Amino acid sequence: MTATGKDTPMSILVYIDHAAGVGKPISWEVLGKARSLADRLAVELIGFVAGKQVSAVATDAIAYGADRVLVADDAALAQFRAGACTAAFKAAIAAAAPRIILAPAVAGVRDVTALAACELGIGLAADCQSLELDDDGNLRADRPIFAGNILTTVTFKAAPQMATVRPRSFALPARDGARAGVVEPLAFASDTRAEQEEVLGFESAQTGAVSVENASIIVSGGRGVKGAEGFAPIRELAQTLGAAVGASRAAVDAGWIPYAHQVGQTGKTVRPDLYIACGISGAIQHLAGMSNARVIVAINKDKDAPIFNVAQYGIVGDLFVVAPALTAAFKARLGR
Questions:
Q1: Which domain holds residue 94?
Q2: Statement to judge: residues 192 and 44 lie in one domain
Q3: CA 201 to CA 33: how far, in whole Å?
Q4: Residue 1 predicted with pLDDT over 50
């Protein structure tokens, strides 16, 4: 099999992750990007779904761009088990003969892709935030390394070429319920590792606050908040707007706010409609995680802060004055 796949018809295979029978947005984001790559290569786009009673997920995969969906529907997959899911994923790879394999970089799927890559001898680029094709149709994947201090481009020597993708790296495609496609059952051999795994239960990590991953509005604080108490005006502004609270790595490393709020190469990649950066200078690592926001508003005392280079609107001033003023204005405008 050649690296370019010129001698062998090939496909692009996408791992579709879901929760309780509902496809996760990151799966559709990856599928949308895969659709554009498949169109350029003129190859079939195949989705892979593993679980129990997941026909609705397969139908959605067609609507979001897949030409064909391989469905491993089995009681052994009713709850996530790395061994069983890996066995099913390997069967999907064998059935699809893919040139490129893409998957969400999320808990569980990371384990499955790593196991499958090791056992099948496939090159894997993990936690990518950008995917492109070179002139020969080979995958080029950008991913952060060294704790996010360097962004590197990974290339592959041979197919299949596998990459996992961070959430919000690509736009969510439009769902087209009129799209036609084929859903096929996928048989797979049981894996003895599955018998050694027991799921005792699940505990939600949600705190009740709006999560940054899928928020349409995010208000973030950085080194300029000066301490944990400095996030108070950030939270009040976010609550007024129904927004998520984000943070730069500097604020998280200082212990002012939990890691779950971190935006950037070593945190979450976000793509909100509105991103308000308060006291954030705009280090390259942070910009890599939020520069795709539709509208960026920057509040900083330093008029030369790099954040102003990507912001549509900039306010040079003290966030402890500006943020409360914005909150009061929004409350009056929104009747809150």
A1: 11-196
A2: yes
A3: 34
A4: no
